[in-house]
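Invent a record, attention on tokens:
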Amino acid sequence: MRKIHYTLYREDSDFVAQCLDYDVASFGATQEEALANLKEAVELYLEDGDKTAPRIAEVSVGDFAIA
């Protein structure tokens, strides 16, 4: 069993779940649906071959202004 890291946020009327370990994202009408869809998408992505997840060493969250 692999453990994945993800972010979950609301975008308009949907929730977006984005995997931090692989370049995979999904969405759903609820948080639960978005996460279930992400799990399925990552499983399908990994079926394609042996992919190694990058090692996450540091995560930062912030904001900045743009002109």
